[in-house]
Automatic annotation (TrEMBL):
PROSITE patterns: SOD_MN. Keywords: Metal-binding, Oxidoreductase. It comes from Peiella sedimenti. Signal peptide: none annotated. GO terms for molecular function: superoxide dismutase activity. InterPro entries: Mn/Fe_SOD, Mn/Fe_SOD_BS, Mn/Fe_SOD_C, Mn/Fe_SOD_N, Mn/Fe_SOD_N_sf, SOD_C_sf. It catalyses: 2 superoxide + 2 H(+) = H2O2 + O2. It is an enzyme of class 1 (oxidoreductase). This is Superoxide dismutase. The keyword Metal-binding applies. The keyword Cell membrane does not apply.
């Protein structure tokens, strides 16, 4: 069985970028439903890490969709903190060497998310020894890519922003990047990837 991961902050802590209503609905309805269906599909005896379930499920299947979305959302909540933070140290240096600087990375990330067609996720990943910006469709997730370590993700499904920004996805991404990114978490994920350690794990009950 897999739990609905608790939020690491209060429902109103990410305002004004993400309203209390949006976060209550996104976490308490959307994420909760993915977890509920996932547990119905795998049964009470499933004990594998969720990452293994995602990687072994047939892409596009009901199991893959619900397992992938459960994992993506659990990771997404960790990528934010009230007031955000700023990249520093090695993370800042690696961003500069990969993109030319934080401003260039910001532009690449927001463009990837804003122009992604339909539902999905915008990611910063460590792959091939460097950092890359990618996007995935629907429930697809960076953890299914070989030698890919996710560092940061933003949900660009409409339910993540529509109540607050209507159809202005770019406006959401601008505000999200500038005010909510938990760069301390990103730095931890980078350090783990460079040390060859396992990535973030979805909690088990």
């Amino acid at each position: 069985m897999y739990p609905l991961t608790p939020l690491p902050y209060a429902h109103d802590a990410l305002e004004p970028v993400i309203s209390k209503t949006t976060l209550e609905t996104h976490h308490g309805k959307h994420h909760a439903k993915y977890v509920e269906v996932l547990n119905q599909l795998v049964g009470d005896e499933e004990s594998r890490p969720l990452e293994d379930v995602v990687r072994s499920a047939e892409p596009g299947s009901k199991l893959f969709n619900n397992a992938g979305q459960a994992w993506n959302h659990g990771f997404f909540w960790q990528c934010m903190k009230p007031g955000g933070s700023k990249p520093s140290g090695e993370l800042k240096d690696v961003i500069a060497s990969s993109f030319g600087g934080l401003d260039q990375f910001r532009e690449a990330f927001i463009t990837e998310g804003a122009t992604h067609f339909a539902s999905g996720w915008a990611w910063l990943v460590r792959e091939g020894g460097g950092l890359k910006v990618i996007s995935t469709h629907d429930a697809d997730t960076a953890i299914t890519r070989p030698q890919c370590a996710p560092l940061l993700v933003c949900d660009v499904w409409e339910h993540a922003y529509y109540l607050d920004f209507k159809n202005d996805r770019k406006g959401f991404l601008d505000a999200w990047f500038d005010q909510l990114v938990n760069w301390d978490f990103v730095a931890e994920r980078l350090a783990a990837a460079e040390a060859g350690e396992p990535g973030w794990r979805y909690p088990q009950a």
